[in-house]
Amino acid sequence: MNGENEHQVVRNNKKRKAFIVLGTVVVIGLSALFIYRAYARTHVTTDDAFVEASIHMIAARVSGTINQIAVNDNQPVKAGDTLASLDPEPYQRAVEEAAASLRSEEGRLTETLARVTSQERRVAATKASVQRTLAAEEELLAAVSARIAEVQAKSAALDQSRLDLARAEKLSQQEVIPKSRYDRARTAFEMASASFTATQELKNQAQVALKAHKSTVNQALAQLKAEEAALESARASVMTQEGQIARRKAQLDSARLHLSYTTLVAPADGFVTRLAAEVGNTVQAGQPLMSLVNLGEAYVVANYKETKIGRFQEGQRVVIRLDSYPGQKFQGTLDSIMAGTGAAFTLFPPENASGNYVKVVQRVPVKITFDDLEEVRPLLRIGMSVVPTILIE
């Protein structure tokens, strides 16, 4: 009987211990679940994340033959370093030809400017001649006016002497006056008539001279107009020549630019990759020769489920782990959230309006930057897998 009691006590003790162990396991499990749920609410993690950076495609900008490759695959370079060069001789000749054409056009411009200066002097001289001709015309007009006034005066004197002669002749016939007085009246009339005729002739000569001078004036004005037209033509030639010089300068600048393109330089700091050029190869404009990976602005693109991004905000802290370096953690910052899901930017986006629709949780790309890029940059390579954890308060 005592043995059965002892056995029962042992069994009870075992059950009690089993319940205690089970209770302890349940408590630990619930605690772990609570802790995990609390952690999951404040720490959002994804393993669908990769390192991204700028990739510069180095391509020939002009056609030519490669005469130098200055770098090797995976070689680090600095911005401005020479990567490769093409044979510059054809482009150097183009520069020399453009420069010679420019000098020739500049020489023509100098000649045209000299012609303009000479023509300006001719126009000035012709204007002075026209002014002198117009001044002479004014003098001739004044002379004609004076002759007309003199003719009028002589005409009046002739009329008076004619009246005096008629009166003297009548009185002489009546023997009222002596014959000598009649003779003086006739002589005075004849002198007045001769003077009037002479004055009339001088007036006619002055008018003929004025008419002839008007022809000279018209010729001078026509000459001035012709000289001014020649001046305008010369000035137009200057403008045309300046346009030719501008065109030649543009051709020279273009030739120099093409010559500069024969030397390929690094646009930024980075690493040379995918080198696909060899000395002696003939390349065409736009043909890729190599790639340059710029890790100076490396960042992480993490694809989070759309159900997680509701609590994301720019500026939140991120803990970043690199698969290539387990155990190391790096600090980052949530920079921005892409304005679209990854599926929306694929080459063939899904067309849910056709066929059967199955709802799939989409992923939204999130850009994450490193707080201390200088520290982590030597470890980074484009495409590395990353596990970022966004800390949500």
What's this, in brief?
The chain is α+β, with helices and mostly antiparallel strands.
Walk me through what this model shows.
This protein is α+β, with helices and mostly antiparallel strands and 393 residues long. The chain has a domain at 92-259: Helix Hairpins. It contains four helices and 13 strands. It is rod-shaped and about 220 Å long. The two termini are 65 Å apart.
Protein traits:
393 residues; alpha+beta; Helix Hairpins; 9-stranded antiparallel sheet; 4-stranded antiparallel sheet; 13 strands; 54% helix; rod-shaped
> What's the overall geometry?
rod-shaped
Helicity, as a percent range: 40-55%
Count of individual beta strands: 13
Instruction: Report the sheet-strand fraction.
Output: 15-25%
- How is the main sheet built? 9 strands, antiparallel
The secondary structure category is: alpha+beta
CATH topology of the domain at 92-259: Helix Hairpins
Taking the alpha carbons of the first and last residues, their distance comes to 65 Å
Query: What's the CATH class label of the domain at 92-259?
Result: Mainly Alpha
Just name the CATH architecture of the domain at 92-259: Orthogonal Bundle
Poorly predicted tracts of residues: none
Mean of residue pLDDT?
86
Order of helices and strands: HEEEEEHHEEEEEEEHE
Radius of gyration using CA atoms only: 57 Å
What is the overall number of helices? 4
CATH-assigned homologous superfamily of the domain at 92-259: Methyl-accepting chemotaxis protein
